[in-house]
Amino acid sequence: MSGSKHLNPRSRATYEIVPATSDHGTAHRGERFGSERAYLDSVMYPFRKILFPVDYSNHCDAVVPYIKDMVERFSADLTLVHAYEPEALAYDELGVVITELDHEARDRQDRRLREFALATFPGKHVDCLAELGEPGVVIDRIVQHQGADLVMLPTHGRGVIRRFLLGSVVAKVLHDVSAAVWTGTGSALKEHTLDLPYKSILCAVDNSDEAEIVLKAAAALSCTYRAELWIVHVVPTPPGTLEVDYSEYRRDILDAADFRLYELKTQLGINAPHAILDAAVAGGVREEAIRRKADIIITGRGYAQTRFERFWSSLYPIIRESPCPVLSI
Hints:
It is a single chain. This protein is of the alpha/beta class. It has one domain: Rossmann fold (3-Layer(aba) Sandwich). Helix 11 packs across helix 13. The longest helix is centred in the N-terminal third of the chain and has 22 residues.
């Protein structure tokens, strides 16, 4: 296109807005609830039952202060679960589990978990469940049967290819579990300054119907903690090319996102500033979190995406790149 201006690829546009005044073997969340609206209506807040999967790692220990804060803040019930693999059992020459030793292994796992609970949460009533099975499956089963509405666990932050090949407990929980999920990479939990209670909350939304429930949850959490609330919508616009000038369309796209978010805030009565960013989603959210000194990011789970598409959704990169914990609704 001769003589046209070209959009700088992945340029970053920020709109500061005046506050408004007025995803094998386990059912996918969509299959479980039947419709997106049914799922959104099932999200419970405030949190009354918190599930803490324990693997006795340093990353696991790093989550404990956040769990104590949540339990105290919401007067929530706390359940600890440890899923152990078949390797913990004893087999005879034919590969049959030796019943007596099987009971001993179960008792040993149960005893270790209870000792961890007593040492970590002294003086608190904590339910403990040690169960045989793959951790993601065990966590999902307990959420379904026990009715937990928040799961809090770290991710070890393995790369995309390793997660794709071997699977990930956090990836499976994010995909299958109906409850809200609080998580953070080991590096984020280690490097982020522990400052509780939360003082700055960043809500990251998109243009899906999930935005409404995510905004409601973020507003409620900020009210509970009396924290500042910031909202961001990252819109990755197409990069410019020599043949096509996207600058005019880029402005229309960003303006439309700005208008929709302003209208949604007004509809919900949420008085908080928002920014519309033109950037890669995970990078844009990270930038805004650093800018706002966020203590936690609240975002959606991409309900409408299929199992394979969810793997490549924005949620995983957001969690991997986040400088602080992420709560996904």
